[in-house]
Write a structure and sequence with these properties.
- This protein is of the alpha/beta class.
- The protein folds into 2 domains: 91 residues; 328 residues, Alpha/Beta hydrolase fold, catalytic domain (Rossmann fold), CATH 3.40.50.
- 45% of the residues lie in helices and 12% in strands.
- It is built from 15 helices and 8 strands.
- An 8-stranded mixed β-sheet has the order 1-2-4-3-5-6-7-8, with helices on both faces.
- A hairpin with an 8-residue loop joins strand 1 and strand 2.
- The radius of gyration is 22 Å and the shape is globular.
- The C terminus is likely disordered.
Length: 423
Amino acid sequence: MRAERWLMVGGVAAAVNTLNAYRPLARRGVGGALAMFAAWPTAEEPVLTVGTQVAAVAGLVGAGGLRSRAGRAGLALAAASWAGIAGLAAKAATSDAVLDQALRAALGPRYLDELPADARRDVPLTRLQRSLPGVGPRRQFRAARHVSYGDAGRRNRMDIWRAADQPTDAKAPVLVHVHGGGWIIGNEEIQGELLLGEMARRGWVGVSITYRLSPKATWPDHIVDVKRALAWVKANIAQHGGDPDFVAITGGSAGGHLCALAALTAGDPAFQPGFEAADTSVRAAVPFYGVYDVGDLGATGNRDIAEVWEKYVLKQRVGPDRRIWEQASPLYRVRADAPPMFVLHGSNDTLVPVEQARRFVAALRAVSTQPVAYAELPGAQHAFEVFRSVRGMHAIHAVARFLSVIHARRPATPSVAEQQTAT
Protein backbone atom coordinates (compact mmCIF):
# COMPACT_ATOMS: atom_id res chain seq x y z
CA MET A 1 0.00 0.00 0.00
CA ARG A 2 1.35 3.43 -0.90
CA ALA A 3 2.29 5.86 1.85
CA GLU A 4 -0.67 8.13 1.23
CA ARG A 5 -3.10 5.23 1.67
CA TRP A 6 -1.40 4.18 4.88
CA LEU A 7 -1.64 7.78 6.06
CA MET A 8 -5.36 7.81 5.35
CA VAL A 9 -5.89 4.52 7.19
CA GLY A 10 -3.81 5.73 10.11
CA GLY A 11 -5.70 9.01 10.33
CA VAL A 12 -9.05 7.23 10.39
CA ALA A 13 -7.82 4.78 13.02
CA ALA A 14 -6.46 7.59 15.20
CA ALA A 15 -9.69 9.57 14.97
CA VAL A 16 -11.85 6.54 15.79
CA ASN A 17 -9.62 5.63 18.72
CA THR A 18 -9.85 9.14 20.16
CA LEU A 19 -13.62 9.18 19.67
CA ASN A 20 -13.81 5.84 21.50
CA ALA A 21 -11.86 7.31 24.42
CA TYR A 22 -14.39 10.14 24.66
CA ARG A 23 -17.49 8.03 24.12
CA PRO A 24 -16.95 4.24 24.09
CA LEU A 25 -18.13 2.65 20.87
CA ALA A 26 -19.39 -0.37 22.84
CA ARG A 27 -20.22 -0.80 26.51
CA ARG A 28 -20.96 -4.49 26.87
CA GLY A 29 -19.52 -7.88 26.00
CA VAL A 30 -16.47 -8.40 23.81
CA GLY A 31 -17.01 -5.01 22.22
CA GLY A 32 -16.85 -3.33 25.61
CA ALA A 33 -13.60 -5.11 26.46
CA LEU A 34 -12.06 -4.05 23.15
CA ALA A 35 -13.25 -0.49 23.69
CA MET A 36 -11.63 -0.48 27.11
CA PHE A 37 -8.23 -1.75 25.97
CA ALA A 38 -8.20 0.71 23.05
CA ALA A 39 -9.13 3.71 25.19
CA TRP A 40 -7.01 2.79 28.20
CA PRO A 41 -3.59 4.07 27.01
CA THR A 42 -5.16 6.90 25.01
CA ALA A 43 -6.98 8.35 28.02
CA GLU A 44 -4.27 7.70 30.62
CA GLU A 45 -1.07 8.25 28.61
CA PRO A 46 -2.00 11.02 26.12
CA VAL A 47 1.54 12.35 25.66
CA LEU A 48 2.88 8.92 24.79
CA THR A 49 -0.07 8.25 22.47
CA VAL A 50 0.35 11.51 20.57
CA GLY A 51 4.11 11.07 20.38
CA THR A 52 3.74 7.61 18.88
CA GLN A 53 1.20 8.82 16.34
CA VAL A 54 3.27 11.86 15.39
CA ALA A 55 6.31 9.67 14.77
CA ALA A 56 4.29 7.31 12.56
CA VAL A 57 2.70 10.16 10.62
CA ALA A 58 6.05 11.92 10.14
CA GLY A 59 7.48 8.74 8.63
CA LEU A 60 4.57 8.43 6.20
CA VAL A 61 4.77 12.10 5.25
CA GLY A 62 8.48 11.70 4.58
CA ALA A 63 7.68 8.75 2.34
CA GLY A 64 5.39 10.86 0.20
CA GLY A 65 2.15 10.47 2.06
CA LEU A 66 0.91 13.94 1.13
CA ARG A 67 1.03 13.43 -2.63
CA SER A 68 -2.68 12.63 -2.84
CA ARG A 69 -5.90 13.99 -1.44
CA ALA A 70 -6.35 10.81 0.61
CA GLY A 71 -3.01 11.31 2.35
CA ARG A 72 -3.78 14.93 3.14
CA ALA A 73 -7.17 13.91 4.53
CA GLY A 74 -5.46 11.33 6.67
CA LEU A 75 -3.11 13.97 8.06
CA ALA A 76 -6.07 16.21 8.87
CA LEU A 77 -7.81 13.38 10.71
CA ALA A 78 -4.64 12.62 12.66
CA ALA A 79 -4.29 16.28 13.62
CA ALA A 80 -7.92 16.33 14.76
CA SER A 81 -7.17 13.23 16.82
CA TRP A 82 -4.28 14.98 18.53
CA ALA A 83 -6.49 17.96 19.38
CA GLY A 84 -9.02 15.53 20.80
CA ILE A 85 -6.37 13.80 22.91
CA ALA A 86 -5.38 17.21 24.29
CA GLY A 87 -8.99 17.52 25.41
CA LEU A 88 -8.78 14.12 27.08
CA ALA A 89 -5.69 15.27 28.96
CA ALA A 90 -7.51 18.40 30.10
CA LYS A 91 -10.43 16.29 31.34
CA ALA A 92 -8.05 14.01 33.25
CA ALA A 93 -6.53 17.06 34.92
CA THR A 94 -9.94 17.98 36.39
CA SER A 95 -10.04 14.70 38.35
CA ASP A 96 -8.20 16.31 41.25
CA ALA A 97 -11.11 18.69 41.82
CA VAL A 98 -13.64 15.86 41.49
CA LEU A 99 -11.80 13.77 44.07
CA ASP A 100 -11.36 16.67 46.47
CA GLN A 101 -15.06 17.49 46.23
CA ALA A 102 -15.93 13.86 47.03
CA LEU A 103 -13.71 13.94 50.11
CA ARG A 104 -15.07 17.27 51.29
CA ALA A 105 -18.63 15.99 50.98
CA ALA A 106 -17.84 12.85 53.01
CA LEU A 107 -15.23 14.06 55.51
CA GLY A 108 -16.08 17.72 55.86
CA PRO A 109 -14.85 20.87 54.09
CA ARG A 110 -11.82 21.21 56.38
CA TYR A 111 -10.68 17.60 56.30
CA LEU A 112 -7.16 18.60 55.24
CA ASP A 113 -6.68 20.35 58.56
CA GLU A 114 -6.67 16.94 60.22
CA LEU A 115 -3.53 15.89 58.36
CA PRO A 116 0.08 16.70 59.22
CA ALA A 117 1.48 19.50 57.08
CA ASP A 118 3.77 17.16 55.13
CA ALA A 119 0.83 14.87 54.30
CA ARG A 120 -1.17 17.65 52.66
CA ARG A 121 1.28 18.03 49.80
CA ASP A 122 1.42 15.46 47.04
CA VAL A 123 4.60 14.70 45.12
CA PRO A 124 3.90 16.04 41.61
CA LEU A 125 4.65 14.05 38.48
CA THR A 126 7.76 15.01 36.56
CA ARG A 127 7.59 15.72 32.83
CA LEU A 128 9.14 12.35 32.11
CA GLN A 129 6.56 10.61 34.28
CA ARG A 130 3.77 12.45 32.48
CA SER A 131 5.14 11.23 29.15
CA LEU A 132 5.88 7.58 29.84
CA PRO A 133 3.89 4.87 31.59
CA GLY A 134 5.35 4.06 34.96
CA VAL A 135 5.81 0.88 36.89
CA GLY A 136 5.40 0.59 40.63
CA PRO A 137 8.25 1.29 43.08
CA ARG A 138 8.89 -2.41 43.72
CA ARG A 139 12.49 -2.36 44.88
CA GLN A 140 12.19 0.71 47.04
CA PHE A 141 9.32 -0.43 49.26
CA ARG A 142 8.78 -4.18 48.87
CA ALA A 143 10.25 -5.51 52.12
CA ALA A 144 9.23 -9.18 51.94
CA ARG A 145 8.01 -11.36 49.08
CA HIS A 146 5.94 -14.51 48.82
CA VAL A 147 4.99 -14.67 52.50
CA SER A 148 2.61 -17.58 53.02
CA TYR A 149 -0.68 -16.98 54.83
CA GLY A 150 -2.54 -20.22 54.00
CA ASP A 151 -2.19 -23.75 52.67
CA ALA A 152 -2.98 -23.09 48.99
CA GLY A 153 0.64 -22.71 47.90
CA ARG A 154 1.40 -19.82 45.57
CA ARG A 155 -2.26 -18.78 45.61
CA ASN A 156 -1.99 -17.99 49.32
CA ARG A 157 0.95 -15.61 49.29
CA MET A 158 1.47 -11.96 50.06
CA ASP A 159 4.12 -9.28 49.69
CA ILE A 160 4.85 -6.83 52.49
CA TRP A 161 5.53 -3.17 51.68
CA ARG A 162 7.17 -0.59 53.92
CA ALA A 163 9.89 2.04 53.83
CA ALA A 164 13.39 0.66 54.31
CA ASP A 165 14.14 3.04 57.20
CA GLN A 166 10.91 2.27 59.05
CA PRO A 167 11.51 0.33 62.29
CA THR A 168 9.79 -3.00 62.71
CA ASP A 169 8.17 -1.77 65.94
CA ALA A 170 6.61 1.29 64.32
CA LYS A 171 2.97 0.15 64.70
CA ALA A 172 2.15 1.80 61.38
CA PRO A 173 -1.35 1.65 59.88
CA VAL A 174 -1.81 -1.18 57.37
CA LEU A 175 -3.37 -1.30 53.90
CA VAL A 176 -4.23 -4.69 52.35
CA HIS A 177 -4.57 -4.78 48.56
CA VAL A 178 -6.64 -7.38 46.67
CA HIS A 179 -5.85 -7.70 42.96
CA GLY A 180 -8.39 -7.94 40.17
CA GLY A 181 -8.56 -10.16 37.10
CA GLY A 182 -12.17 -11.27 36.85
CA TRP A 183 -11.75 -13.86 39.64
CA ILE A 184 -9.83 -15.92 37.05
CA ILE A 185 -6.38 -14.37 36.53
CA GLY A 186 -3.91 -12.21 38.46
CA ASN A 187 -1.46 -12.31 41.33
CA GLU A 188 -0.08 -10.15 44.12
CA GLU A 189 2.23 -8.27 41.73
CA ILE A 190 -0.43 -6.70 39.50
CA GLN A 191 -2.33 -3.53 40.33
CA GLY A 192 -1.91 -1.55 43.49
CA GLU A 193 1.82 -1.01 43.26
CA LEU A 194 1.59 2.75 42.85
CA LEU A 195 -0.89 3.02 45.71
CA LEU A 196 1.09 0.75 48.02
CA GLY A 197 4.26 2.66 47.20
CA GLU A 198 2.58 5.96 47.99
CA MET A 199 1.25 4.65 51.29
CA ALA A 200 4.67 3.23 52.20
CA ARG A 201 6.16 6.64 51.46
CA ARG A 202 3.67 8.09 53.94
CA GLY A 203 4.69 5.64 56.64
CA TRP A 204 2.12 2.87 56.15
CA VAL A 205 2.71 -0.86 55.86
CA GLY A 206 1.24 -2.40 52.70
CA VAL A 207 0.18 -5.98 52.06
CA SER A 208 -0.59 -7.23 48.54
CA ILE A 209 -2.24 -10.63 48.47
CA THR A 210 -3.19 -13.27 45.97
CA TYR A 211 -5.98 -15.82 46.36
CA ARG A 212 -7.35 -18.96 44.73
CA LEU A 213 -8.71 -18.36 41.24
CA SER A 214 -11.42 -19.89 39.11
CA PRO A 215 -12.06 -22.12 37.29
CA LYS A 216 -9.96 -24.26 39.62
CA ALA A 217 -11.44 -22.51 42.64
CA THR A 218 -15.17 -22.39 43.33
CA TRP A 219 -16.95 -19.60 45.17
CA PRO A 220 -16.60 -18.75 48.04
CA ASP A 221 -12.92 -19.83 47.93
CA HIS A 222 -11.91 -16.35 46.77
CA ILE A 223 -13.44 -14.41 49.66
CA VAL A 224 -12.43 -17.11 52.16
CA ASP A 225 -8.80 -16.51 51.15
CA VAL A 226 -9.17 -12.75 51.51
CA LYS A 227 -10.60 -13.28 55.00
CA ARG A 228 -7.80 -15.73 55.84
CA ALA A 229 -5.25 -13.14 54.72
CA LEU A 230 -6.89 -10.50 56.93
CA ALA A 231 -6.78 -12.89 59.88
CA TRP A 232 -3.08 -13.53 59.21
CA VAL A 233 -2.40 -9.80 59.05
CA LYS A 234 -4.15 -9.19 62.36
CA ALA A 235 -2.08 -11.95 63.99
CA ASN A 236 1.33 -11.30 62.40
CA ILE A 237 1.71 -7.83 60.88
CA ALA A 238 3.22 -6.40 64.08
CA GLN A 239 6.37 -8.36 63.22
CA HIS A 240 6.65 -6.24 60.06
CA GLY A 241 6.03 -2.89 61.74
CA GLY A 242 2.29 -2.79 61.21
CA ASP A 243 -0.51 -2.02 63.64
CA PRO A 244 -3.00 -4.92 63.78
CA ASP A 245 -5.56 -2.56 65.32
CA PHE A 246 -5.71 -0.43 62.17
CA VAL A 247 -6.06 -2.46 58.98
CA ALA A 248 -7.73 -1.03 55.87
CA ILE A 249 -8.47 -2.83 52.61
CA THR A 250 -8.50 -1.85 48.94
CA GLY A 251 -8.69 -3.51 45.53
CA GLY A 252 -9.75 -3.01 41.93
CA SER A 253 -12.37 -4.70 39.72
CA ALA A 254 -12.82 -8.25 41.05
CA GLY A 255 -10.51 -7.11 43.84
CA GLY A 256 -12.86 -4.19 44.44
CA HIS A 257 -15.72 -6.66 44.77
CA LEU A 258 -13.76 -8.78 47.27
CA CYS A 259 -12.56 -5.68 49.12
CA ALA A 260 -16.07 -4.31 49.60
CA LEU A 261 -17.52 -7.73 50.47
CA ALA A 262 -14.82 -8.41 53.04
CA ALA A 263 -15.41 -5.01 54.63
CA LEU A 264 -19.14 -5.70 54.95
CA THR A 265 -18.97 -9.31 56.21
CA ALA A 266 -16.57 -9.25 59.17
CA GLY A 267 -17.00 -12.44 61.18
CA ASP A 268 -19.43 -14.06 58.72
CA PRO A 269 -18.93 -17.80 59.41
CA ALA A 270 -19.93 -18.72 55.84
CA PHE A 271 -16.78 -16.94 54.64
CA GLN A 272 -14.53 -18.05 57.53
CA PRO A 273 -14.74 -21.84 57.66
CA GLY A 274 -12.41 -23.19 60.30
CA PHE A 275 -11.46 -19.74 61.59
CA GLU A 276 -14.86 -18.40 62.52
CA ALA A 277 -13.58 -16.65 65.65
CA ALA A 278 -10.82 -14.73 63.85
CA ASP A 279 -11.11 -10.96 63.66
CA THR A 280 -11.41 -10.01 59.98
CA SER A 281 -12.81 -6.51 60.50
CA VAL A 282 -11.24 -3.52 58.75
CA ARG A 283 -11.13 0.17 59.66
CA ALA A 284 -11.75 1.43 56.11
CA ALA A 285 -12.31 0.16 52.58
CA VAL A 286 -11.44 1.68 49.20
CA PRO A 287 -12.85 -0.29 46.26
CA PHE A 288 -11.82 0.84 42.78
CA TYR A 289 -14.24 0.16 39.86
CA GLY A 290 -15.62 -2.83 41.74
CA VAL A 291 -18.43 -5.27 40.98
CA TYR A 292 -21.14 -4.77 43.60
CA ASP A 293 -23.98 -6.82 42.09
CA VAL A 294 -22.54 -10.02 40.62
CA GLY A 295 -25.91 -11.26 39.35
CA ASP A 296 -26.86 -7.87 37.88
CA LEU A 297 -30.12 -8.07 39.80
CA GLY A 298 -30.36 -4.31 39.52
CA ALA A 299 -30.28 -4.57 35.70
CA THR A 300 -27.25 -2.35 35.10
CA GLY A 301 -27.02 -3.83 31.64
CA ASN A 302 -24.04 -6.17 31.88
CA ARG A 303 -25.18 -9.77 32.24
CA ASP A 304 -21.72 -10.88 31.12
CA ILE A 305 -20.57 -10.72 34.75
CA ALA A 306 -23.33 -13.09 35.85
CA GLU A 307 -22.49 -15.45 32.99
CA VAL A 308 -18.83 -15.54 34.04
CA TRP A 309 -19.92 -16.34 37.56
CA GLU A 310 -22.27 -19.13 36.54
CA LYS A 311 -19.77 -20.74 34.16
CA TYR A 312 -16.45 -20.29 35.94
CA VAL A 313 -16.90 -19.03 39.52
CA LEU A 314 -20.04 -20.67 40.91
CA LYS A 315 -20.02 -23.41 38.26
CA GLN A 316 -23.79 -23.76 38.36
CA ARG A 317 -26.84 -22.19 36.84
CA VAL A 318 -28.45 -19.96 39.41
CA GLY A 319 -31.66 -19.03 37.68
CA PRO A 320 -34.11 -17.03 39.81
CA ASP A 321 -32.45 -17.86 43.15
CA ARG A 322 -31.63 -14.33 44.37
CA ARG A 323 -30.21 -15.63 47.65
CA ILE A 324 -27.03 -16.93 45.99
CA TRP A 325 -26.43 -13.68 44.13
CA GLU A 326 -27.22 -11.50 47.13
CA GLN A 327 -24.90 -13.41 49.47
CA ALA A 328 -21.99 -12.72 47.11
CA SER A 329 -22.88 -9.10 46.28
CA PRO A 330 -21.73 -6.13 48.40
CA LEU A 331 -24.82 -4.21 47.26
CA TYR A 332 -27.03 -6.53 49.30
CA ARG A 333 -24.71 -6.76 52.32
CA VAL A 334 -24.69 -3.06 53.28
CA ARG A 335 -25.03 -2.47 57.03
CA ALA A 336 -25.18 0.35 59.53
CA ASP A 337 -21.82 -0.53 61.08
CA ALA A 338 -19.98 -0.64 57.76
CA PRO A 339 -16.49 0.89 57.97
CA PRO A 340 -15.75 4.22 56.27
CA MET A 341 -15.59 3.68 52.54
CA PHE A 342 -14.24 5.54 49.50
CA VAL A 343 -15.67 4.24 46.22
CA LEU A 344 -14.00 5.24 42.93
CA HIS A 345 -15.31 4.50 39.42
CA GLY A 346 -14.83 5.86 35.91
CA SER A 347 -17.76 7.28 33.98
CA ASN A 348 -16.59 5.50 30.80
CA ASP A 349 -16.04 2.06 32.34
CA THR A 350 -17.05 -0.57 29.77
CA LEU A 351 -16.17 -3.64 31.85
CA VAL A 352 -18.12 -2.82 35.01
CA PRO A 353 -20.99 -0.35 34.46
CA VAL A 354 -20.73 2.79 36.54
CA GLU A 355 -24.38 2.26 37.50
CA GLN A 356 -23.20 -0.53 39.81
CA ALA A 357 -21.12 1.94 41.82
CA ARG A 358 -23.93 4.50 41.92
CA ARG A 359 -26.43 1.99 43.29
CA PHE A 360 -23.96 0.59 45.81
CA VAL A 361 -23.08 4.02 47.16
CA ALA A 362 -26.73 5.02 47.40
CA ALA A 363 -27.58 1.84 49.31
CA LEU A 364 -24.58 2.20 51.63
CA ARG A 365 -25.24 5.87 52.37
CA ALA A 366 -28.83 5.03 53.28
CA VAL A 367 -27.74 2.86 56.23
CA SER A 368 -24.09 3.50 57.15
CA THR A 369 -23.20 5.63 60.14
CA GLN A 370 -19.69 6.22 58.78
CA PRO A 371 -18.41 8.42 55.92
CA VAL A 372 -19.10 7.17 52.41
CA ALA A 373 -17.12 9.07 49.75
CA TYR A 374 -17.82 8.56 46.06
CA ALA A 375 -15.78 9.89 43.14
CA GLU A 376 -17.03 9.29 39.62
CA LEU A 377 -14.14 10.31 37.41
CA PRO A 378 -15.22 11.86 34.09
CA GLY A 379 -13.79 10.11 31.05
CA ALA A 380 -12.05 7.40 33.06
CA GLN A 381 -12.09 3.80 31.88
CA HIS A 382 -11.61 0.62 33.88
CA ALA A 383 -8.24 0.25 35.66
CA PHE A 384 -7.48 3.97 35.33
CA GLU A 385 -5.01 4.04 38.24
CA VAL A 386 -2.75 1.23 36.96
CA PHE A 387 -0.74 3.70 34.87
CA ARG A 388 1.26 6.42 36.58
CA SER A 389 -0.93 8.94 34.82
CA VAL A 390 -2.18 12.34 35.89
CA ARG A 391 -5.64 10.98 36.70
CA GLY A 392 -4.28 7.82 38.29
CA MET A 393 -1.94 9.71 40.60
CA HIS A 394 -4.65 12.20 41.54
CA ALA A 395 -6.78 9.21 42.58
CA ILE A 396 -3.95 7.62 44.56
CA HIS A 397 -3.20 10.86 46.39
CA ALA A 398 -6.90 11.30 47.21
CA VAL A 399 -7.09 7.76 48.59
CA ALA A 400 -4.00 8.45 50.70
CA ARG A 401 -5.67 11.55 52.13
CA PHE A 402 -8.89 9.66 52.85
CA LEU A 403 -7.11 6.84 54.64
CA SER A 404 -4.91 9.26 56.59
CA VAL A 405 -7.95 11.17 57.84
CA ILE A 406 -9.73 7.97 58.86
CA HIS A 407 -6.58 6.91 60.68
CA ALA A 408 -6.37 10.28 62.41
CA ARG A 409 -9.97 9.82 63.54
CA ARG A 410 -9.49 6.23 64.66
CA PRO A 411 -10.77 6.68 68.24
CA ALA A 412 -14.14 7.59 66.70
CA THR A 413 -14.20 4.64 64.30
CA PRO A 414 -13.70 1.46 66.37
CA SER A 415 -13.37 -1.85 64.62
CA VAL A 416 -16.18 -4.38 64.60
CA ALA A 417 -14.25 -6.48 67.12
CA GLU A 418 -13.94 -3.50 69.48
CA GLN A 419 -17.66 -2.76 69.13
CA GLN A 420 -18.49 -6.36 70.03
CA THR A 421 -16.18 -6.22 73.04
CA ALA A 422 -17.78 -2.98 74.21
CA THR A 423 -21.25 -4.51 74.07
